[in-house]
Design brief:
The protein is built from 20 helices and 9 strands. It has about 475 residues and is an alpha+beta fold. It has 2 domains: about 150 residues, D-3-phosphoglycerate dehydrogenase, domain 3 (60s Ribosomal Protein L30, Chain: A), CATH 3.30.1330.90; about 300 residues, no CATH class. A hairpin with a 2-residue loop joins strand 7 and strand 8. Helix 11 packs across helix 13, helix 16 packs parallel to helix 18 and helix 17 runs parallel beside helix 19. The longest helix has 22 residues. About 55% of the residues are buried. The model has no long low-confidence stretch (mean pLDDT about 95). It binds iron/sulfur cluster (SF4).
């Protein structure tokens, strides 16, 4: 089984989808690296990328073709200037060429990226066949985008690729392992996870990575709380986060995230205003995601708003402003919960529907919050279990193949459920719980396997079909 670091679960990238944007971006980068390693980089004369399964069905709305283009232009998802993306894509569409190791190679996105809507790879719902023409021969590799920006090649066993790590101090495959280590060592959940991370990273690195994730989350929140207008894609969805905050935080005070937090901390808010503020944060991040802004996969892009919203809730409504140490503990705990779902079920909507995205992010956030509020290890795991229990069976049916409806509001729901799950767990005795986290993960995976393919990020069922008729979206 794979050894997964917290920092694998939180990847800095651009929206709108980790499996359909970030994963394909990484796939093309890996393909080019393998092409070079095979000694073909100076012989290549053309490329073709064939998108199969869910990538073909919702790839346009999820910007899969744009991700392929950006990777071919040599851009990195962590560093590309998000405001320059459209200009870069326009240039490529006009020039129809890319540079590979100093050589110009023809690449016409309209011709060389192909959406094979009727072909599904037997190995995974998200597959890309990458083809390079090298003289009279071809160099062909097929890869899977397996959720959360993780990728694998079709001939690899998932999690056993060449980047597999050494075994950590406390190998955690199931929630019961984590609970046993905590009970034997007297450590909290985040301390056990930190001990494992120390096998791969220095303390300084763990802190720096945690703060980089938090800063990226805060910046996407800040931008989303200010930017108004209509989201791209043709569905006519208006950005709503700024309006949700309007009478609570004046626009000028939203320029600086610390000022925004101080203003909310000083306000005497009613319960419904608190719900509004948390919903605003979740919606702000996911509107940024839908606009191809920079966000953190948590564990995916579609669900990128849940964890920032719950962390901002803690920052705005906790007993004192959130500290760097608390940020680290939250992320270590949440990351471990996400890893349990990845190892034993899925974090890919194309494999398991929205329960695998919003459900998992809600479980991660509930556990992280419970850890900061002093929950015992049993209560932390119980918080995650409760959050997932009430997302079981949730389908993925994005309208128009875009990550907007129902995705953006779903982040708000996931965040609120996470806070409720944490609150229930910290008032409960885990010894009396009837369902364990391991059992709910198993139930989620069983549900995923039995779910109709129409509800797994294909836009062929549910709201996607209803609204395709209403708003005339031919692509659905
Ligand atoms: S419906 Fe859920 S799983 Fe599907 S794209 Fe939207 S957020 Fe992701």
């Amino acid at each position: 089984m794979a050894t997964i670091s917290t920092f694998d679960m939180f990847k800095v990238g651009v929206g709108p989808s980790s499996s359909h944007t970030l994963g394909p971006w990484r796939i093309v980068q890996r393909f080019l690296a393998e092409l070079r390693a095979a000694g073909y980089a100076d012989k290549v004369t053309g490329f073709r990328f064939e998108l199969l399964g869910s990538l073909a069905l919702t790839g346009r709305g999820h910007a899969t073709d744009k991700a392929v283009c950006l990777a071919m232009l040599g851009e990195q998802p962590e560093t590309v200037a998000v405001d320059s993306i459209e200009a870069k894509l326009t240039w490529l569409r006009g020039s129809k060429e890319v540079e590979i190791d100093g050589r110009t190679v023809v690449f016409d996105p309209a011709r060389d990226i192909v959406f094979l809507r009727n072909e599904r790879h037997p190995g995974h719902a998200n597959a890309i066949r990458c083809i390079a023409e090298v003289g009279t021969d071809t160099f062909v590799r097929t890869y899977f985008s397996i959720g959360g920006g993780f990728i694998s090649r079709d001939d690899e066993v998932e999690g056993l690729s060449s980047d597999a790590r050494a075994l950590p101090t406390y190998p955690v495959y199931h929630a019961k392992d984590l609970l046993r280590y905590c009970s034997e060592s007297g450590l909290s959940v985040s301390e056990v996870v930190r001990a494992n991370e120390r096998c791969w990273h220095s303390d300084q690195d763990i802190r720096a990575r945690s703060l980089q994730i938090w800063n990226t989350m805060r910046e996407s929140t800040r931008r989303g709380c200010r930017i108004e207008g209509v989201l791209p894609g043709g569905l006519g969805v208006h950005r709503r986060a700024p309006a949700l905050l309007r009478d609570i935080v004046p626009d000028l005070q939203r320029e600086d995230i610390e000022r925004l937090i101080r203003t909310i901390r000083a306000a005497d808010l009613k319960f419904e205003d608190l719900i509004r503020v948390v919903s605003c944060f979740a919606i702000a991040v996911n509107e940024e995601n839908a606009a191809m802004g920079r966000v953190v996969t948590a564990p995916t892009n579609g669900a990128a708003g849940v964890i920032p919203a719950v962390m901002m809730y803690r920052a705005c409504f906790g007993p004192q402003p959130i500290t760097d140490e608390e940020v680290e503990r939250f992320l270590l705990t949440a990351g471990q919960i996400g890893a349990l779902f990845k190892q034993n079920a899925t974090i890919s909507a194309a494999m398991g529907g929205c329960q695998a995205e919003i459900g998992v992010s809600s479980a991660m956030a509930a556990a992280g919050l419970c850890e900061l509020r002093g929950g015992s290890p049993g209560q932390v795991l119980m918080a995650a279990e409760i959050a997932m229990e009430h997302h079981l069976g949730m389908t993925c049916d994005p309208v128009g193949g875009l990550v907007q409806v129902p995705c953006i509001e779903r982040n708000a729901m996931g965040a609120i459920k996470a806070i409720a799950a944490c609150t229930i767990a910290e008032q409960s005795d885990p010894a009396q719980a009837r369902v364990s986290l391991d059992e709910v993960i198993e139930a989620m995976w069983d549900t995923a396997r039995e779910m109709n393919e129409r509800y797994k990020e294909t836009s062929l069922g549910g709201l996607a079909v209803k609204l395709a008729v209403t708003v005339g979206l031919a692509e659905c």
